[in-house]
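[job 4417] fold queue: 2 targets
>>> target A
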Amino acid sequence: MKTISASLRRLVAPTALLLTLGLLGCDKQLDIEPQQSVDAATALSTPEGVQSALTGVYARLDLPQSYGTNLLLMADLLAADLPTAATFTYIGWQGTFQSYREVSRKQMTDVNTEADRTWNQNFQTINLVNLVLDALPVVADADDKQRIEGEARMIRGMLYFELARLYAQPYRTTGAFSNAALGVPAPTATPGLPINLSANKTEADAARRIARSSLEETYTQILADLTAAQDLLPEANDRTRFDQYDAKAFLARVYLQRGEYATARDLANEVINDSGASLNASSVSTFTNKNSSEVLFEIQQNDQNNAGNSNDGLATFYSSNAAGFGGRGDVRIYQAFADQYGADDQRGFNPQIGASLIYEGTGRRAGFLRTYKWNNAGQNIPILRLSEMYLIRAETNLRLGTNVGATALVDVNRIRTRARATPLANVTLASVLQERDLEFAFEGFRVHDYKRTGRSIGAGTAAIPANAPALVMPIPKYEINLGNALPQNEGY
């Protein structure tokens, strides 16, 4: 399904709190029968109800409109080469869904289905977070109350960050790739997101009009939520729920985006040294083994409950329908990108499927390169990996001329050695950024990295500048018509 019912077309969530979300798979949450929902006041009147609601919020992270598909896939498609390019450098879209084709070709309008449903469903999750936070006084146990608040604020901060990166220009204040150097207004003058921290419980609440805050104000709220989560969350947890090192890792990602390199470096270093996580022996196992030692947090899926296996889901779009896959083969990898990996690099191409993270697809659209990262609808989705912390530490140490924790060369080679790639003899900023390209390919990193560092998407005459309006998603037309989320983004 690619449409959203009219009753859900709101910036804010309805007053009913859906407590069965943790049991739902695919995108069936758009077709819930009335008897499956209970009034928020009833659901959140007990500690058990609040905990159930938080479990439902976790479940919503797996929605196809969220981390289940779109927060990764749409970012990847924004980094896709245009079909008119003379040289293809990354990926291309071969699928039949017009909404995703528009994203990949940078031809979106304000009624693009993916921009619409991604905005809508993630803001509904944010409102469910607000409902949980509003109900905290009913939780008597101090430890439970603190943990619930930490988890809820972690999720809210994460979603505001993801939406800000998709629906606003990048935040950069200093250095060669600052907002000024990129030719875009300062964060204080750049539109961010509509920020709503109040739970909407009534029709009057839902009828409020919320304009866009500045990008500066948006990031202030993101940092407030994630910093609070860092202090509130338990020191250690399993990989299915957030702990304080997840908050530190995500904060390192946010501070890197902001260009606050010393803070990003120190947070990444702390996660590396103290979280207890360790790199897997294989690059492939990160995406084939659930809850491995390298993953700080991942979205939990299984064969029954997942983001989708026909019209949604990462494996649906990225994998071929070779034996054991069953994907659509919609996203192809261009040979020029695969060639950037060395011959023995597990992250590159190997003709034996499963021996590396790039393979040649068979069946539908046979003969094109695919990624093995998303190979099964029921696999977990890694969101925070230790390898990211090593490469954040490497980049920030190099930019700052420091060697906190290790030299940039040691950290980059740590990632390359794990992948069976040839170690580098020396490292530059360009080689660190390329290592991020290689390590995080097809995980939704590329467009955000290119925008924050001022690099064009694509090559030659088809290259798109980092500050191009076409690399920013449109605010859905229905929000503009309702008077919310103004002003609209440039170009729409």
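>>> target B
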Amino acid sequence: MRIRRKSNGCMNCGHTLDSIYNYCPSCGQENNDNNISFGTLIKDFFTNYFAFDSKFARSVLPFFFKPGFLTNKYNEGKRVSYVHPVRLYFIVSLFFFFIFSLASKKVIEEQISNAKEIKNAIQLNSITGLDEETRKKISDALDSNTIDDINDDLENGNIEELVDLLDEKSKEKLLKVLDSTEVKQLNLNLKELTLNSLDTLNNQVDKWVNDPTIASLTKEKKTENNWNRIERLKENDDLSDAMIYDSLDLEDTSNFERYFWNQYIRTRRSDERLLTNYFLKNLPLMMLLLLPIFAFVLKVLYLRRKVLYIKHLIHALHLHSLAYIIYGTSILLMMYLFKDDDSTGWVSFITFVLVSTYSYVSFLKVYGQGWFKTLVKFNLLGFMYINLLGLSVVIEVFISGHDLE
């Protein structure tokens, strides 16, 4: 029961109140004195909104070890004795999305760090006459595609050949990071540099757009070609999003497809940290919006059972809550205990089996159909939900990319 600290008078209008009043009969304000210490406020918050009492204690064991029990009890009308499914969902989702957020950010940071290490590791070791510091400056200043091209084209492995393989824009970048001694060592002549790099890139874009060989490609091949082109150009700082978009083959495409490609370019070129933060911010809402859809699919699959939609929704809340706890725990284990690939693979497999088994048994208990019919419907639901989840993630990533604009 919610804790109220009642007063003898309404703090809003001053009306005299009796202890039986939860709300002021004059203005309607709640009769609750919040002039209390911070510690008491925190204690009341957990008591009021998380209700860690006998109700919670009675719910724990059935929730974990009796699939479908809480759903059946709630649908039978026995609701006071157990934690409300909505409250349970929000408590567990706080745990899961916090852990998922930590893990996702950790993975992104590791990927960025590894990519940086790989780039820094390209020290152009085959070039003679360059000291270690200069090599590192070159590899840090140039993008990875440029360095890869240089390493692929090097034959003699001398400084003169390196300079010949640098385009004008790359030389400009090096001039910003190298000191005068290093510039002299590389023999970079300022007079040889021009400012027509952007014109060159625009000409290349026009060449891509007007390439007659592209017109003969099938739609699937054009799509694949567009994917590859974006991946190849996304790290080129000299190209704007619009220039990359204009280089794609979008002839005979719908407005939605054009919007898709435009958003995809923005998403792929967005800062991974920012994109991850926006994605994680929107993810809880996305999963919450999927719950009623999940319940609707249950309603369709069990249409002949004449079960009210709200009962399917209660079942969906319990299933997602259990999945959040198990998956959240497994993520913790993989983050701190089982870090190698073999161990994480086994943890992921065991987690999937546990969630699937629990959900299947819950279906048997809640809907009361035979094991074969239940298995068919369970797999059909799983197939539909995984595809719906994948589509939702794609949409959510695009929305997150749009938020970065």
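[job 4417] complete. Note on B: Residues 85-110+272-403 form one domain.
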